[in-house]
Write a structure and sequence with these properties.
The complex is a heterotrimer. Chain B is an alpha/beta fold. Helices cover about 30% and strands about 25% of the residues of chain B. Classes of the chains: A alpha/beta, B alpha/beta, C alpha/beta.
Chain lengths: ~140, ~650, ~325
């Protein structure tokens, strides 16, 4: 979380954005973006998880503590969860975590979440591009 | 030392044209724990796999990272390959440098940098991978079908015909369900009993089928492949093994009870069979009304029974049986319109009846032998009003859903009235007419040509005037109030889930939606499965349907059950959660999260600290139910419950690897 | 203070009776210290010890957590329970940490103690008890210390009282700057004081806080909601908590601790009371409850009964997700 001192941007490099993607929707959507040869910035690094419900908010804290410039969490749309209800819990957890991060002075523009289905390759591309642009714009404080 | 081997694929030029694969392999060699790294044109090819296997043997590799296409593509391929080596197939991670690198980025420099990062993450993760072993559970080759309507009958017959043993459980004294109550079926007008009773007879004669009537599911333990079901056999008071169904007892019984089967339009004795063609064709005693059982008087049936079948001391029994697959076919009921529509008389008018009662009236084996008469005085009605969507499509007073079959059976009712009562007039009040089915629109069209008058609007009030029922409502096409003086009014009422369906499904781990219809695993792609493995849905328990759809879905459910029962054993994924009992506080936060009911709290009694015999809660995982989503792990503050293959420490290592 | 002494007598006699008839092994309450303004916790095992129990405005330590030390016991424990303790007990019951029949609860409606956090307390009457020692009637329903509480304050006014608060100073080691002002205030007073800052100001404010944190884990130790058998911070191999003593890792701990109690916090303020560095960490947990209330649009008070659903253990199909 020591954003000011540790980010890549601070060192003049490209920002690194960590993305948690659920295996069944967003990871598939990201693969589809590849199959369609869509182009998006190379700043994003995807961690594959079975379900967005697997993403512990502590992972996000850890990423920021280690120097992540941005973190995103993606999963199936509500109602489409491969495991029926996982993303409903994700939703509550991260709505709450966002408030806590903001309260702790982590710029909310560094943390995003989005529902992206397996067919929404373009949405994945656009979302990643958008977050990259935002995070690059923030630079370091 | 981890002795990790990293293998970077070129994927022809797919990867190598953008990513500097040699640089990736070189970077991998420098990573902690990596003792070998190589690149090759096609890792997934036969020689590519052989190259990996050789490297494992030559360099004593213990864990493998493959940088290639998406794990969704070839993870299984490489797992299979590892089975041929000494390396556990779960000590494998894939870095996705094709779909998520070379195909989406153009600049070789940043693409290569990202590929190195992804390999670094995979290496960090694989170092914490644990060897896992897929286990398998034996499957009990026997299916349970819950519900003996047409859906249950069809599913049972299909499964039995495929060679598997089936037990069909029905809570009524006979199978048959709603379909045997009907007279004719739309749009072909074939006799419902003529097509369903032969199936019932097939059922009772089928060597693979065991029929359980007057039975309920009391409890369920276990899961897919092995459900141990506690069956409650309600007392029948008639020895079913000896009874021949001669009917002497039914004739002599002095008690008269309104027949539910005939919707109260006739009486039945206290020792009775549900209907003449009941299967099994043997009577049971209705304990609530039998004089012997309630008042210890009478005993006539015992006296007249030539075989001594009557056993007043019979009791409910419970016993356990194990099944590999379960089909839920619990069916529907009609909503109680009398409680919802005071403006229709709330049941005060005898000649306002529901659609099922009309079916009994028009049925040749019904209480009037098929003569359509007014229940109040037995007179033949000359003007009949049919009201559709009573309870359906009415979120305020009734149910929000469309009951789907009513438009068609209303058309059928209109047709039957016009056919059986010469000169009769039929008015159908409707909101919309929905006829999406083969030959459905044609049937509806013909009914209108035959003379049925369709009035678009809801009936707002039914009241009595001069011995007739005045149906008042707006004809919304004319924009005028209309009043029809009817002799008989038939309310085509909403289907609703059968009483107790939600509770029964819950015993098997399946759930119901907000309206009480049982929930399919996916509305489009898994319509006959439930979230509970090995539990399938057939017929109207899943939502309103007509007979063709019900039968089709029943066969679908049967196919799923057969697919399961054809296996001797079922492999279970080892990538599920496990609980460290020493750390588990038993708070139960994880239990609330699990959508599969795989987690439960149990009391652990053990010596602990200064206490000889301490009792505390711990979480237990049912490995057969866990699907490995890992949503519970986040609820566990201690980390006592963790997901194999995606453990906390592994994901943390992946994160850390990016910023070392 | 007359009330306090009468009520103290009731506590002593009830405790003596429970010990005499063997209902409980001991009774948890407060005892005097050699400082007039401090009390300590007493485990009264005998009738004589029960006569040492005190009840005054300095009974600021919450007792609920001590039940956990006896969670495996086969005997019953008596406890004096105010609103906060009773909600802790419900919380421990919800989390399956204690057995209801092994706790004997002496309900003690609280007039508000001499502590800043008590000034934001809204639920001072016990919500569960075996025996209510005195009536809650006549107690001010909300607000600070009884003698400091203005009368006829409505919720809106109370919120105003809290809103204008200055940012709490980050304490110096071994000082107690937090308990200086016990006047009435808003329920989320500590969080509200920080909310108005800009992102950068917030960041540096918490930086200052966590630079002082010595990671003694007293906040966790005192928290009645931190009932885990093993705490994640003590598990090196899990790896959630970095072991570096840096503001960054301290901050991860601070935020994680808050998140771990997020939807279960009973708002007793023990975490802040026991912090040896005097850090204003109550804001973190207050913020989370405030967020939950904003997300659901409903009041969220934990510990009101033992059967309640946790916010994070449930969902609504139409939960808000405006940033997703």
């Amino acid at each position: 979380m020591d954003v000011a001192n540790r980010t890549n941007t601070a060192a003049g490099g490209e920002p690194k954005i960590l993305a948690f993607c659920c295996n069944w929707c967003t990871y598939t959507g990201a693969d589809l973006a590849g199959l369609n040869r869509m182009k998006y910035p190379a700043n994003v690094r995807v961690v594959r998880v079975p379900c967005s419900g697997r993403v512990n908010p502590q992972f996000i804290l850890r990423a920021f503590a280690r120097g992540a410039d941005g973190v995103v969490v993606c999963g199936c749309h509500p109602g489409d969860c491969h495991y029926a209800t996982g993303n409903f819990f994700t939703r509550r957890r991260f709505m709450l975590m966002r408030g806590l991060l903001e309260f702790n002075g982590i710029d909310p523009r560094r943390f995003h979440a989005r529902w992206i289905s397996g067919s929404e390759a373009a949405k994945f591309r656009d979302f990643v591009s958008e977050v990259c642009a935002i995070v690059k714009g923030l630079g370091h404080e | 030392m981890s002795r990790i081997g990293v293998f970077v694929c070129h994927c022809g030029t797919n990867l190598a044209s953008v990513v500097d694969v040699e640089k990736v392999a070189a970077a991998a060699r420098e990573l902690p724990g990596v003792s070998y790294a190589a690149e090759y044109k096609y890792m997934c090819s036969e020689p590519g796999q052989q190259m990996i296997l050789d490297a494992i043997a030559e360099h004593g590799l213990k864990r493998i990272v493959i940088a290639s296409c998406s794990p969704r593509m070839h993870e299984t391929t490489f797992r299979k390959m590892l089975k041929k080596s000494g390396v556990n197939e779960y000590l494998l991670e894939i870095a996705n440098i094709r779909e998520q690198v070379s195909w989406v980025h153009t600049d070789s420099g940043v693409a290569t940098e990202k590929a190195v990062d992804l390999v670094r993450m995979a290496v960090a993760k694989v170092a914490k991978d644990e060897p896992l072993k897929a286990s398998s559970i034996p499957i009990t080759k026997r299916a349970l079908v819950v519900g003996g309507g047409i859906a249950g009958i069809q599913a049972a017959l299909d499964i039995a015909d495929a060679g598997h043993e089936v037990w069909l459980l029905e809570r009524e004294p006979s199978i048959g369900g709603r379909m045997v109550m009907l007279d004719k079926t739309f749009p072909t007008l074939d006799c419902s009993a003529c097509i369903s009773t032969p199936k019932m007879v097939d059922m009772s004669a089928h060597p693979n089928i065991k029929l359980l009537t007057s039975c309920e599911v009391a409890a369920v333990r276990g899961y897919i492949g092995n459900f141990t079901v506690t069956i409650r056999q309600k007392a029948k008071y008639v020895n079913q093994d000896i009874c021949t169904g001669c009917g002497n007892c039914e004739e002599k019984c002095p008690v008269k009870v309104k027949s539910d089967f005939n919707k109260g339009l006739s009486d039945r004795p206290a020792i009775y069979r549900l209907f003449p063609q009941a299967v099994p064709a043997k009577p049971v005693i209705d304990r609530a009304h039998c004089l012997k059982l309630t008042k210890d008087r009478c005993g006539l049936c015992e006296k007249v029974c030539p075989l001594g079948c009557i056993d007043y001391a019979d009791e409910d029994r419970e016993y356990d049986e194990t099944f590999g697959a379960v089909v839920l076919a619990t069916g529907y009921g009609l909503c109680d319109w009398t409680a919802m529509y005071d403006e229709y008389g709330a049941g005060r008018f005898a000649d306002v009846i529901d659609g099922l009662a009309f079916e009994r009236l028009v049925n040749a084996s019904g209480p009037t032998e098929g003569h359509i008469v007014r229940p109040s005085d037995g007179a033949e009605p000359k003007t009949v009003v049919l009201v559709k969507c009573v309870g359906s499509r009415d979120p305020k007073k009734g149910k929000p859903w469309c009951s789907r079959a009513c438009c068609m059976y209303a058309a059928k009712h209109a047709h039957q009235i016009l056919e059986k009562i010469p000169g009769a007039r039929v008015f159908v009040f409707y909101i919309d007419v929905r006829t999406p089915g083969k030959n459905y629109e044609e049937f509806y069209d013909q009914t209108r040509k035959d003379g049925a008058v369709y009035v678009r609007g809801r009936v707002s009030r039914i009241y009595k005037e001069g011995g007739r029922l005045i149906c008042q409502g707006e004809d919304s096409l004319l924009g005028k109030q209309v009043r029809v003086a009817a002799d008989l009014v038939v309310l085509e009422t909403a289907m609703e889930p059968a009483a107790g369906a939600r509770e029964t499904a819950a015993l098997f781990g399946a759930s119901a939606d907000a309206n009480g219809w049982l929930q399919e695993a996916h509305p489009k792609l898994r319509p006959v499965e439930t979230q509970a493995g090995g539990v399938f849905l057939a017929g109207t328990c899943q939502g309103p349907k007509d007979i063709p759809d019900t039968v089709a879905q029943a066969s679908g459910a049967a196919a799923k059950a057969i697919g399961l029962l054809n296996k001797d054993e079922m492999e279970t994924s080892p990538m599920i959660v496990a609980v460290d009992e020493a750390k588990c506080s038993g708070c139960g936060a994880c239990v609330d999260i699990c959508p599969f009911g795989a987690l439960s709290l149990e009391i652990l009694t053990a010596r602990e600290g200064r206490w000889e015999r301490a009792e505390r809660f711990v979480c237990k995982v049912n490995a057969g139910l866990c699907q490995g989503c890992g949503a519970c792990t986040v609820a566990c503050r201690t980390g006592a419950i963790d997901l194999r293959g995606f453990r906390n420490v592994q994901i943390l290592e992946e994160i850390d690897a990016l910023w070392t | 203070m007359n009330n306090f002494s009468q009520q103290q007598q009731k506590i002593r006699s009830a405790a003596s009776r429970l010990l005499a008839d063997g209902t409980v092994r001991f009774v948890i309450g407060w005892a005097p210290t050699r400082f007039a303004e401090r009390t300590t916790v007493l485990f009264a095992h005998t009738e004589a010890e029960a006569q040492a129990l005190v009840w005054n405005a300095h009974c600021t330590a919450a007792l609920g957590k001590y039940l956990l030390d006896h969670r495996l016991a086969d005997y019953a424990v008596g406890i004096v329970a105010r609103g906060c303790e009773s909600r802790m007990i419900n919380r421990l019951l919800t989390d399956h940490q204690i057995w209801r029949e092994r706790v004997y609860i002496l309900g003690a409606p609280c007039p508000g103690m001499d502590a800043e956090r008590c000034a934001g307390c809204r639920e001072r009457a016990p919500v569960v008890w075996d025996e209510l020692l005195w009536d809650a009637d006549g107690m001010p329903e909300t607000g600070g210390r009884q003698d400091a509480a203005p009368t006829n304050l409505d919720e809106a006014t109370i919120a105003d009282v809290g809103a204008g608060l200055a940012l709490p100073a980050v304490g110096a080691a071994c000082s107690r700057p937090l308990d200086t002002d016990t006047s009435l205030r808003s329920r989320f007073f500590r969080a509200e004081a920080v909310e108005g800052l800009s992102a950068a100001e917030k960041f540096s404010y918490w930086d200052e806080v966590y630079a002082k944190c010595i990671r003694c884990y007293a906040c966790r130790q005192a928290c009645p909601v931190c009932s885990c058998r093993a705490c994640y911070v003590d598990m090196d191999r899990q790896g959630f908590q970095g072991k570096q003593h840096s503001a960054a890792d301290n901050r991860v701990f601070g935020v994680t601790r808050a998140f771990h109690v997020a939807d279960r916090c009973v708002e007793c303020g023990e975490c802040e009371r026991v912090c040896p560095m005097g850090l204003p960490i109550l804001g973190q947990t207050q913020k989370l409850i405030k967020e939950i209330e904003a997300l659901t649009g409903e009041a969220y008070v934990q510990g009101m009964d033992a059967e309640e659903e946790n916010f994070l253990g449930a969902f609504d199909l139409d939960d808000k997700d405006d940033f997703l």
